[in-house]
Amino acid sequence: MKKVYVFGTRGFPGVQGGVEKHCERLYPELVGQYEIVVFRRIPFLPQNAEKNYKGIRFIDLPSTRLKGFESCFHSFISTLFCVWKRPSIVHIHNIGPGMFIPLLKLARLKVVLTYHSANYEHKKWNYIARKILKFSEWIALRGSDAIIFVNKYQLERFDESIKRKSVYIPNGVEIQSPSTRTDYIEALGLSPQKYILAVGRITQEKGFDYLIESYLKTLPHDYRLVLAGGIDHASDYAAQIRDMAQKHHIVMPGYVDGEPLRQLYSHAKLFILPSYNEGFPLVLLEAMSYRLPLLASDISANKLLELNPDDYFQTGNVIDLAKHIQRKLSYMGEHPHYSLRAYTWNNIGEQVAQIYERL
């Protein structure tokens, strides 16, 4: 059986992040056709992390929690491992780890790159880091044998030489039935249909600071705000969000997955995604699968999902978001129904397998 080695993710299951969730859902669809081996970063794995997951084998390698360096260090070690073991395909996620593609090509290995987002647009990076990421993008796009873009607007930015070996394959969603349990949300002091939910890492590009400001402008009411996401690296921004949450009784349960996350989605009154940057918004797809009323920033990635015009607000605009929140909270009709047929992981897995076979 042909081997596919994967790096550019911190690992899974039980690890926070859009790329991590993408890989956790995608690669089980390819087990049976390929032997899937995923490199994970030890410092980010939960205690008693599973050694095998749905037929996927893991290789856990040392890394660091230093912002920026963790990805570079782990990707370099993973690259050396790939050169040594010589799999049929090396599948890299994101442009940062793509800087090592020339080493893989020197070893005559076939490389697939999944372009999740233009990381250098994220506010958390300084000037030098953005330049390095931009250069990594240039290397990765030109060195890859095939490229998968999860955002078709990102694909359109590049020239024909890149487009010829590229394909747009969006992220998917795993449809789950709503949870009838409420023990987890009750432990957080929440009641069904009496809270607003946002999910994501506590980083600048997620826009949680202006979400909190908008929420406060809609008071008084009896709806709580829940920010479900972990803090990967200590930062002034994370400290600011924690301070604002503590002062205004906003719920921050940290990273949530499994049944606790199902309960948060199942019983929320409204879901909000205020991001400044997204590759393809997995959490928005998840909220849609639970038929939640939605509000999303009007960035191009969120507009890929073609929601109703009233479901979008001006990115970063506190007043506009506050007006949208007030209108949504006053709505008493039935929950919306969204068409998600184009976003099944089975369909996405088949498209990725076709790329592997072509190489």
TrEMBL record:
Annotated GO biological process: lipopolysaccharide biosynthetic process
Keyword Transferase: yes
Annotated ranges, domain Glycosyl transferase family: 187-325
Signal peptide: none
Pfam family, one: Glycos_transf_1
Membrane is among the record's keywords: no
Gene3D superfamilies in the cross-refs: Glycogen Phosphorylase B (3.40.50.2000)
InterPro entries in alphabetical order: Glyco_trans_1, Glyco_trans_4-like_N
Protein name per its UniProtKB record: Glycosyltransferase family 4 protein
